[in-house]
Amino acid sequence: LVASTHIPFFMDGRALNRRVSPAAADGWLLAYPQASGGPAGVPEWDSEGPYAWGGDEVAFMAALLDDLEANFSVNSDRCYICGFSSACSAVWDTACQLNDRIAAASTVAGVLWNWTQQNCAPTHPTPVITIHGTNDGDMPYSGSPYSLSLIATSQYWSQQNNGDPNPVTVSLPDIVPGDGSTVDRLTWGNGDNCTEVVHYRVN
């Protein structure tokens, strides 16, 4: 591994180990964190806030970063984190509380909890990509009493980046007309250090 090696963290909702082609890892060090056992007795990511069950995911992520940086030749300024479903809670906790160690963040089918946003303290412009379906019944697209909507989440990060208050919306080509869905790309640009916040809305 060379000094410019990037570190993306990939986390599944229940932290089931997944793999990608080694070719996709060219120039990258891929890390697949494993969640500890949750209340239901299966691996599950915890989150900070009133419903936390005792797993300190932020401390775990900090220790993981320490270990990777100590044992591999990596660029500590190029650490990226992404997650799916309930793992998104750990993504946002890490992006907020360890922001000085995370270059960018991405979530798929996950929400930003109100208490996470209220305690978030970004220290640098942070590019963000989110992907979410409007019919998600588990993680409501429009938000809930406990979570921000996906639009409000994107607006929050754009505001932190001193970016645009409103997005540029582009409807992507419907390359599979019969699947019953379409996708819009919403981009909040012009953030500091050329950062963008991009949201893919699956209708």
Word description of this protein:
The protein is α/β, with parallel strands linked by helices. The chain has four helices and seven strands. A seven-stranded mixed beta sheet has the order 1-2-3-4-7-6-5, covered by helices on one side. A hairpin with an 8-residue loop joins β6 and β7. 33% of the residues are buried.
Tell me the series of helices and strands, N- to C-terminal: EHEHEHEHEEE
Helical residue percent band: 10-25%
Mean of the pLDDT scores?
Answer: 86
What is the terminal separation in angstroms? Answer: 41 Å
User: What low-confidence regions span 5 or more consecutive residues with pLDDT below 50?
Assistant: 1-5, 14-19
Multimerization state = single chain
What gyration radius follows from the Cα positions, in whole Å? 17 Å
What is the overall shape? globular
